[in-house]
Amino acid sequence: QVQLVESGGGLVQAGGSLRLSCVMSGRMFSVNHIGWYRQTPEKQRELVARITSDGIIDYADFAKGRFTISRDDAANAVYLQMDKLEPRDTAVYLCGGLFRLAVTNTRTFWGRGTQVTVSS
Fold first, then answer.
1. How far apart are the C-alpha atoms of 24 and 32, rounded to whole Å?
2. Which of 27, 36, 71, 79 counts the most CB atoms within 10 A of its CB?
3. What is the largest CA-CA distance in the chain?
4. Which has the closest alpha carbon to 21: 94, 89, 78?
């Protein structure tokens, strides 16, 4: 099993910044890709940013130019720096990824999420 624990959410004014952290633990052979997603009661879960094992990064259009994803392999952590936050960024942010547990076994794991609220 792989555990993902997010932290860093909170309440911030529009234009402000937050840095989310996701720490991975458990038995894993490797990480195919790991990233940040967000969801609200009104919208389905959507990709914010994702980084692959090769270091390829994808951003949602709304995240480009404002959010930055990074990875620290030594710390088994992935981060999301969010700048110029807007009220529409209010959501639960979840860390999730596809992990290789064995040579022929991959599985997706999710954290519980951290709430980000942006006030106008």
1. 13
2. 36
3. 48
4. 78
C-beta neighbour count of 71 within 10 angstroms: 19
Question: pLDDT tens across 39-87, in order?
Answer: 999 999 999 999 999 999 999 999 999 999 999 999 999 999 999 999 9
Q: Is the dihedral of CA 87, 19, 34, 55 positive or negative?
A: positive
Cα–Cα distance, 100 to 120 (Å, whole number):
41
Provide the 8-state DSSP code for 84.
S
Report the DSSP beta bridge partners of residue 85: none
What's the Cα-to-Cα distance from 17 to each of 3, 37, 80, 83, rounded to whole Å? Answer: 26, 17, 10, 4
CA neighbor of 95 nearest in space, from 45, 55, 54, 61: 45
Residue type (1 letter), 65: G
- Report how far residue 86's alpha carbon sits from residue 89's, in angstroms, rounded to the nearest whole number: 5
